[in-house]
Design a protein that fits this description.
- The protein is α/β, with parallel strands linked by helices.
- The protein contains 15 helices and 20 strands.
- The strands form 5 sheets. The chain has an 8-stranded parallel β-sheet with strand order 11-10-9-5-2-1-13-12, covered by helices on one side.
- Helix 10 runs parallel beside helix 14 and helix 11 runs antiparallel to helix 12.
- The radius of gyration is 23 Å and the shape is globular.
- The protein binds 1-deoxynojirimycin.
- 1-deoxynojirimycin binds next to loops.
- 1-deoxynojirimycin (NOJ) binds next to loops.
Amino acid sequence: MKWWQNAVIYQIYPRSFQDSNGDGIGDIQGIISRLDYLEELGVDAIWLSPVYQSPNDDNGYDISDYQAIHPEYGTMEDMDELIEEAKKRSIRIVMDLVVNHTSDEHNWFVEAKKGKENPYRDYYVWRNSVDGKEPNNLGSTFGGSAWELDETSGQYYLHLFSKKQPDLNWENEQMRSDIYEMMNYWLDKGIGGFRMDVIDLIGKKPDEEITADGPKLHDYLKELHDNTLKGRDVMTVGETWSATPETAKLYSHPDRNELSMVFQFEHMMLDEQPGKTKWDLKALDLQEWKEVLTKWQVELKDDGWNSLFLNNHDTPRAVSRFGNDTEFREKSAKCLAIVSHMMKGTPYIFQGEEIGMTNRKVKSIDEVDDIESINMYTERLEEGYSEEELLHVINVKGRDNARTPVQWSAEEQAGFTEGTPWLPVQPNYKEINIEAALKNTESVFYTYQRLIELRKNNPIMVWGDFELLMADHPSLFVYKRSYEGETWLVCANISEEPERLLLNELSLKSEMIISNAKRTTVTSDGLVLSPYEAFVVKL
Ligand code: NOJ
């Protein structure tokens, strides 16, 4: 068994985690000061969103020096101290690896822009104009064309994200080898692995307008593995918006030596209109959601590995999106935690999720920080959408929802900073905060703590087969896990109405493993599950 197979990983978005010096921006010393808390929660690793040198056009996902720490976050000594201090608590640090693109302020790009003869020119993707215009119709995820004109040379460079994030050219062997060297620098420090930003895009073929799943993608990943990860006890998780169960097996099959697992997003895109963008909303259908999650559980059973997550720094808060963040906030947060952590795979918790932090509401675009939301707003306003509808979708889907400061206590600025936070603290911090959660044994925090502990002590959670029951039920999510003669049944009511559950498998002898409703016994002749009630029993 690999260590990451029964691990639970906690994602830190450093800008919003904990400030230690009063500048309103979270930092590495802030993280160090909260390691005891993470140890109490029980997590095995931290996925640390980027802390590298960066002009912050995309909050650190635009890196100008991979081997330097942004002064806002601290120094390389602070980083070494974090790795060391985390290790003392048996927590590994998984670094964010952003190698589909760099910042336009990275030295490689500064050199590349000097001219066609520069040795770094080919580290990026340059094309001539076609009929005095962009080379083709490729669009950027953040709006507009993916091509930007470089006035000096008259050529265009590719940027699948902002124009300050030029795409690296993975066809260049020297560039690849520089990336491997940089990865080894970090691995030699004893980190626990990498989360690989939009890694499915590195094999792009821009002339054919192919971005994800390019023909050489898996060759690159194998080469990357052989030059960096091979022989090291580390984990990798690729961010792959394009993944299907078939491609996920290519990435994560243990015999292929590519990645440990990927983040797939199929279950995260079901509340948008198919073929459109994340901003084109559609109501989530629970049957469809169960079907998709089940497909991934079944397909990757023996030939790959799943990651389990319901939110991250790019998505809305899980409780606001899949649960209910008002009347049933705590109950639904626990319910979602149970449903997700009981599946097979490696669970990820996004900072604040463990206390049921909620989405943010803005009333004006001036309150928005996120480049993706701002660009979409500007574009769609011109296209004739109303301000009201655009603010509504930003409130539902915008990335700032997840990026407000972690609510540590009821003190001013929620104990996040002694200064003015870079993004305002949510008004509900007096009620929803970690200090209060730790004092209340019934809080969401203790459900997460228990789920993590259960995973450590029960191989069935790690290895058990998954079987969906009552697939057609519109609001009950019921599944079985079975391993070496043992069976657990997970039952959840993902709705605001009570629901009746009749299952022959249940009997008074079933042993309660975890419940969010103080339920101690179950019967087969009809239970009524209260709104968002969830429990797990051993049959
Ligand atoms: C995915 C990251 O999670 C997101 O925050 C970022 O904007 C893009 N990749 C580009 O790096």
